[in-house]
Amino acid sequence: MGSQPFEDASGRRSTRRPDCGGDRRANAALHRIVFTRLRHDPRAQAYRERRTQGA
Q: Helix (H, G, I), strand (E, B), or coil: what is residue 54?
């Protein structure tokens, strides 16, 4: 599935980042699900608030 992150290593630095390829329909469906939940689900909205407090 295209939404699973993969290892991206450069020298000493190693991070995980999303794979932009993969199943485009699955990526589009996941995108719609996430943004619909953020619009309508109070639990998702609270999670977003908690995650963006430090940013």
A: coil
CA distances from 43 to 30, 31, 35, 38, 49 (A): 17, 17, 13, 8, 10
Print the domain residue range for 54.
24-55
- Whether 30 is covered by a domain: the verdict is yes
CA angle 26, 8, 37 (to 5 degrees): 35
Using the 8-state DSSP alphabet, how is residue 5 labeled?
A: E
Q: What is the pLDDT of residues 1-55, one digit of tens each?
A: 456 666 666 667 777 666 666 788 888 899 999 999 999 999 999 999 999 997 6
* Tally of helices (H runs) and strands (E runs) in the chain: 2, 2
